[in-house]
Design goal:
disordered N terminus; two-stranded antiparallel sheet; alpha/beta; disordered C terminus; 5-stranded parallel beta sheet; Rossmann fold; globular; 2 domains
């Protein structure tokens, strides 16, 4: 039988970087972008919802929340209760005491799945994997989900609510070398090669956009976008996730008392 380039699900491969704080997840995700990956984050929706909760400009909030110093400083004021919050505390509160109890622990995974479908991100790399519930929605739209557990000297999950994924998912371990990002990139690409039929090598070159298909590697430039936008399975999957995400619209618990675990 002649091989076909049929994708078994709307999107092809999601790589989940799973490692403790300061282990280099964002740097690795950025370094993978020139190889055809689209960088994604589960917390993108959390930035948006927390900025809305605080009635702040999104870009201004993200700047404070991603800076290693300002994210811990109590520079924010609760809009109705007058409580001082750090950006990190505000995000924990919105995530753990508002969104997840009212919209489900998979809310940020559902939001990420919607975003990947909207972007048609055939190759995606997530820089902030840490909660298994967030991966489950991606299983409905990606043919392959590969978890890369990152290990680096002097980095741990101590005092962090996230942890390493267990064997429930397809996990691979990568030992990082301080100051050698390319070693981490090469290790990840080597793992991805194993997902090609027959273990063929995938030579991903910078700025050479490619996608993994069941029959091999095909340059994106050779794929008609309409093959995906008009595909029935793609549209049904996208509509399903849009419907699930819309349930959040009726839940607006943004005036609840501040609680901390």
């Amino acid at each position: 039988m002649e091989a076909t380039n049929k994708i078994t699900k709307p999107l092809n491969l999601a790589v989940i970087l799973n490692g403790p704080p300061n282990s280099g997840k964002d740097t690795l995700a950025d370094a993978l972008e020139p190889y055809g990956f689209e960088k994604q984050m589960f917390k993108t929706a959390l930035y948006e919802q927390t900025a809305y909760y605080l009635q702040m400009d999104l870009d201004r909030f993200k700047q404070q929340a991603t800076d290693r110093i300002t994210k811990e400083e109590k520079t924010l004021i609760h809009p109705t209760q007058g409580v001082e919050l750090s950006p990190r505390e505000a995000m924990i509160h919105v995530s753990e005491h508002m969104i997840k109890p009212h919209c489900g622990k998979d809310f940020f995974g559902v939001a990420a799945a919607q975003r990947c479908l909207d972007h048609k991100a055939q190759l995606a790399v997530f820089s902030d994997g840490g909660f298994k519930e967030e991966l489950q929605p991606l299983e409905g739209i990606y043919t392959h989900i590969v978890v890369i557990r990152l290990y680096r000297d002097d980095c741990s999950f101590d005092n962090d609510s996230r942890t390493y994924f267990d064997g429930t998912f397809d996990c691979h371990d990568v030992e990082l070398i301080n100051g050698d990002i390319q070693h981490g990139v090469d290790s990840i690409l080597k793992i991805i090669n194993s997902y090609l039929p027959g273990g063929e090598s995938m030579d991903l070159l910078p700025n050479d956009k490619t996608m993994l298909l069941d029959s091999g590697v095909i340059p994106i430039s050779e794929i008609d976008p309409l093959d995906f936008t008009e595909d029935t399975d793609f549209i049904e999957a996208k509509d399903s996730y849009l419907d699930e995400l819309s349930t959040y619209a009726s839940a607006d618990p943004f005036d609840m008392p501040i609680e901390y675990e």
